[in-house]
Design goal:
heterodimer, A: mainly alpha, Serine Threonine Protein Phosphatase 5, Tetratricopeptide repeat, 12 helices, B: 197 residues, mainly alpha, Rna Polymerase Sigma Factor, Chain: A, 10 helices, elongated
């Protein structure tokens, strides 16, 4: 085996993904035990891949993803509008005020997951056990619906409720997201997640089209003068 | 490409040189760390197995069990594979983690927050095309040929851009493993190799 073969056959990625057969895997291992540059590439990939997986996708790819994700919803809206248009009574001139078009200020793909570090519990609470670990691993892997379902089942502490709410939101399930985040906010200052929960609640309200309530929630986040002040201000300025 | 100092080092270890034992450990620690991280899901086990393998290899070298000094890489790798197989057998007998964790050997540990921050900063410093290429290959798991079709470049260009971007990240991250040889000092105090280099 040589370095050209390693590069041309994507052996390092396939090795890390467990996709090589035994012979190829053994040959690659023997190779990187001798080859400094392939060793460095392996070290880099082992470091970079899990870190990259925690980041939002690059903007250009988010645009691509967003288009496809919203296509069925857009189609449904168009169809619904069509049915409503055909079935509605004809308005008189006096009943048809001119309205400015409402543009979405937030799309689901704009919502960023809250940072999570396995060793960091901001309220000092501990969620021991495999259920929490597994759910948060799903969260880190961006499997929002699965993470939300598991966290909701295990929800007993602010951290669990909070991440359940965010996972529901990122999965596009607005009502359960609002329900979980409301419970976190109801804990008040006892919960270290209050500010973050309010910011995510505001985003959930925006996605639900409840702009007035969203604006009020964003104002509360701004007035907290905390970590989310700037982001809340930016989002509020678009309303 | 072989380790040019393998003969010198292994013969020196046989002769009782502490300095060459240290060089041996520094050479193989990052290799073993990569091997065990790739093959084992739990970081603690990876670190433990790295040290156990180095210890077993050193003891074997001191005892003159390596016949071909140029084949020291495959010698150490063979010991590492045996240690790994034994660890998996042991885990199967006395599980300390779930079966799912054992099966999910490629998920790896979550990176430290500061490391994620460094990667994020460096990643966003890359050009938009390089970001797309790295993301599609490393996170979404596409092959370079598929990425080439998506981004409108040749497959070779995609490979080159990926390699160049990864080299830049590697330089920034300085991924060479830190070699902790404290345990080697402990081994010296209780072991048989006391002669000076």
């Amino acid at each position: 085996m040589n370095c050209n073969q390693v590069v041309s056959e994507n052996l390092i990625e396939r090795y890390l993904d467990g996709q090589l057969d035994d012979a190829a895997r053994d040959a690659l291992e023997l190779h990187y035990f001798e080859c400094e540059s392939c060793l460095v590439m392996l070290q880099t990939l082992q470091t970079v891949r899990p870190a990259l997986a925690q980041l939002p996708a690059p903007v250009s790819l988010r645009r691509r993803t967003a288009h496809w994700r919203w296509l069925p919803i857009a189609a449904a809206i168009v169809l619904a509008a069509l049915f409503w248009w055909k079935g509605r009574p004809a308005p008189s001139v006096a009943q048809a005020p001119m309205q400015a078009p409402i543009l979405a200020v937030l799309q689901l793909s704009d919502v960023q997951p809250a940072p999570y570090s396995p060793t960091l519990f901001r309220d000092g609470s501990v969620e021991p056990g495999a259920a929490w670990d597994h759910a948060m691993r799903l969260y880190q892997q961006r499997q929002w619906a699965a993470a939300a379902a598991e966290l909701a089942q295990a929800a007993s502490q602010p951290a669990t409720l909070h991440f359940a709410g965010i996972s529901y939101l990122l999965a596009g399930q607005i009502d359960p997201a609002l329900s979980a985040l409301d419970r976190v906010i109801a804990l008040g200052p006892k919960s270290p997640f209050e500010e973050e929960a309010r910011f995510y609640r505001a985003q959930a309200l925006l996605l639900a089209g409840r702009t007035t309530e969203a604006r009020a929630e964003l104002d509360r986040v701004v007035n907290t003068r905390g970590d989310y002040e700037a982001r809340a201000r930016t989002l509020a300025s678009k309303l | 490409m072989t380790w040019t100092r393998s003969s010198i080092v292994t013969e020196g270890i046989l002769a009782g040189s502490q300095a060459l034992e240290r060089e041996f450990v520094e050479h193989f620690t990052p290799r073993l760390a990569v091997f065990f991280r790739a093959r084992s899901p739990l970081l603690e086990i990876a670190e433990e197995l790295t040290q156990e393998t180095l210890l077993a290899a050193l003891l074997a070298l001191r005892a003159g069990k390596l016949r071909d000094c140029d084949a020291v890489g495959s010698f150490v790798l063979g010991i590492a594979r045996r240690q790994l197989a034994e660890a998996f057998r042991s885990k199967a007998r006395h599980p300390v983690c779930s079966a799912a964790e054992l099966e999910d050997v490629h998920s790896g540990p979550a990176p430290a927050p500061e490391l994620t921050l460094t990667v994020r900063n460096e990643f966003y410093n890359l050009g938009e095309m390089d970001q797309r290429i790295l993301w599609l290959i490393l996170v979404e798991g596409h092959r370079p040929a598929e990425v080439a079709a998506q981004v409108g470049l040749s497959e070779d260009a995609v490979r080159q851009r990926k390699s160049r971007a990864l080299r830049r990240l590697a330089e920034k991250l300085n991924t060479s493993a830190v070699t902790n040889t404290d345990w080697l000092t402990t081994l010296k105090q209780s072991g048989s190799s006391d002669s000076k280099p």
